[in-house]
Amino acid sequence: MPTPTPTRAADVPKPPTSLVRRARKIDRVLAETYPDAKAELDFTNAFELLVVTVLSAQTTDKRVNAVSPTLFATYPDAAAMAAGDRTTLEEMLKPVGFFRAKTESLLKLSGALCERFGGEVPAKLDDLVTLPGVGRKTANVVLGNAFGVPGITVDTHFGRLVRRFGWTDETDPVKVEHAIGALFPKRDWTMLSHHLIWHGRRCCHARKPACGACPVARWCPAFGEGPTGYDEAAKLLRTEGRA
Ligand code: SF4
């Protein structure tokens, strides 16, 4: 049974070897299962990734990907967005929901980038989390995928899966991040996040996981939370992420 985890990474006790081995085995199998795993939001640079990650709250990646080409053609960088017209931005963001709040967030975020970071996205966690609307999860997504700095993204899928796998009992995202960080070498953190998020979106669903068709079922203590027969489970599999 996993023990409670301190809030500082440096204080996390060394996890048992058996847990480390099982966790790494599961990740290897997921890597083979999802060789194309990556961020499902479209972006071409750190600014775009930061913006689309903020926009992806409470909506689907697909919806964000549908609005982002027009958004970045109009506002290609923080300076252009900070000087942008609120009504125009709101109109563009309508399809992603909460468009007034998200417009406000993007104007504040791009303004802060211009005022404090010369219009560039900073490549440090401590700086990123000082930006309006940017929490640790968003910061780690940007670090891992735009700057190649290893980061663990604790979203709803990641948290659910690591608890089902028995890797940790923690629910606090920072504690989860530290507990899982202790099980894997740093270089694996970003891809580990993608593997778990893809598995959560396609197979290990929150309400009815497809246990009978799950490639890591034999190492999962939560096997049986969903249907265990292959035929029934296979119907629950999704080939794509959030629609
Ligand atoms: S066996 Fe079931 S609960 Fe465990 S990872 Fe697979 S789908 Fe999720």
TrEMBL record:
GO biological process, one term: base-excision repair, AP site formation
CDD domains linked to this entry: ENDO3c (cd00056)
Keywords from the UniProt entry: 4Fe-4S, DNA damage, DNA repair, DNA-binding, Endonuclease, Glycosidase, Hydrolase, Iron, Iron-sulfur, Lyase, Metal-binding, Nuclease
Cross-referenced SUPFAM superfamilies: DNA-glycosylase (SSF48150)
Sites where the protein binds [4Fe-4S] cluster: 204, 211, 214, 220
Cofactors demanded by this protein: [4Fe-4S] cluster
Enzyme class at the top of the EC tree: lyase
Cofactor binding note of this UniProt entry: Binds 1 [4Fe-4S] cluster.
EC code: 4.2.99.18
Pfam families for this protein: EndIII_4Fe-2S, HHH, HhH-GPD
All residue ranges annotated as the HhH-GPD domain in the record: 55-202
Gene Ontology MF term list: 4 iron, 4 sulfur cluster binding; class I DNA-(apurinic or apyrimidinic site) endonuclease activity; DNA binding; DNA N-glycosylase activity; metal ion binding
Catalytic activity: 2'-deoxyribonucleotide-(2'-deoxyribose 5'-phosphate)-2'-deoxyribonucleotide-DNA = a 3'-end 2'-deoxyribonucleotide-(2,3-dehydro-2,3-deoxyribose 5'-phosphate)-DNA + a 5'-end 5'-phospho-2'-deoxyribonucleoside-DNA + H(+)
Role noted for this protein: DNA repair enzyme that has both DNA N-glycosylase activity and AP-lyase activity. The DNA N-glycosylase activity releases various damaged pyrimidines from DNA by cleaving the N-glycosidic bond, leaving an AP (apurinic/apyrimidinic) site. The AP-lyase activity cleaves the phosphodiester bond 3' to the AP site by a beta-elimination, leaving a 3'-terminal unsaturated sugar and a product with a terminal 5'-phosphate.
NCBIfam families: nth
Similarity annotation: Belongs to the Nth/MutY family.
HAMAP family cross-referenced by the UniProt entry: Nth
Protein name: Endonuclease III
